[in-house]
Amino acid sequence: MRLAKYLAGCGVASRRACEQIIRSGAVTVDGACVTDPARDVDASRRVEVDGRPIGPARGTVVYAINKPAGVVSTASDPQGRPTVVALVPGERRLYPVGRLDAGTTGLILLTDDGELAHRLTHPRFGVEKTYRVRVQRGPVPERALRQLRDGVELDDGLTAPARVRRVSADTLELTIHEGRKRQVRRMCEAVGHRVLALERVRLGPLELGDLRPGAYRQLNAAEVSLLRAAGSAPRTGVSRPAAARAGSGPGRRAADAPRRASGS
Ligand code: URA
Q1: I need a labelling partner for 199 at 20 to 30 A (CA). Which of 17, 47, 130, 173 fits?
Q2: Which of the residues 101, 170, 210, 256 is marked catalytic?
Q3: For the whole model, what pTM was predicted?
Q4: CB 149 within 8 A of CB 143
């Protein structure tokens, strides 16, 4: 197995981040520094990152969080802003699955399962994300909805067709599967409507549901299986995911004392 994939599977980081860690020279295999992410390894090898032995994960975890505005979706922030990772207390080294802008609220996942994170974020697998968007200058005309559905020309190219549903005069629900930087904000601006509020309400098969801002819960095995299935094959057409609700469990505020999540 490729070294980067092996490290991601052990919960070190996402597969892309593992490639960078390997290239930086932090990884040894049987005592020798390896900088090639494609080096073939298996569990019989002694793999270390910064001198710390790495082995197959003893079972991974996935948490759903309702990210509040102002919280960044990175593991650490040079500007010292609060991070989603800090919302979930515990010993495990978790990292966010993909990114939301600091000002975006809603569903984000944290996991130590690098392979799952890779599959949920890599454009090849085209996992759908749905956003609820409140825009300036409503009502949004039919022409703008059509443009969003057909694809919008952005400075990094034409977007794939989005699914768009009007919720009210100034609020839309947009489903996309690309995940380019600030994509929804740029798409709405391109059709003449600046975004005032943006919330992710679904990621693949998982809905935000009634999880409160700042609350999190551990996903159960059935939900994780649904996520795995969503990222199991390269995207070929439009999929209609079955729904599970991130907020259907009890949900906890980050300030609550840690206790077992009973999302099953
Ligand atoms: N699109 C955006 O513009 N921002 C996000 O945070 C997510 C999707």
Answers
A1: 17
A2: 101
A3: 0.75
A4: no
Residue 166 tokens read as 């009007």
Strand extents, DSSP E, the chain: 27-29, 32-33, 47-49, 52-54, 62-67, 95-96, 105-111, 129-135, 153-154, 157-158, 163-168, 171-176, 195-203, 206-207, 215-218, 244-245, 252-253
User: Is the fold of 3-54 the same as that of 128-203?
Assistant: no
Q: Provide the pairing of β-strand 95-96 with 153-154.
A: unpaired
Residue 59's CB is within 10 A of a number of other CB atoms, namely 8
What's the CA-to-centroid distance between 185 and ligand 1, angstroms? 6
* Mutational pocket test of ligand 1: of 84, 131, 152, 194, the residue with most ligand atoms within 8 Å of the beta carbon: 131
Q: Determine whether 101 is an active site residue.
A: yes
Q: Which of 10-14, 144-148, 185-189, 259-263 has the lowest mean pLDDT?
A: 259-263
Which CATH number is 3-54 given? 3.10.290.10
Q: Which is the CATH superfamily of the domain at 128-203?
A: Alpha-L RNA-binding motif (3.30.70.1560)
Pick the CATH number of 62-124+205-253 from 3.30.70.580, 3.40.30.10, 3.40.80.10, 3.30.70.260: 3.30.70.580
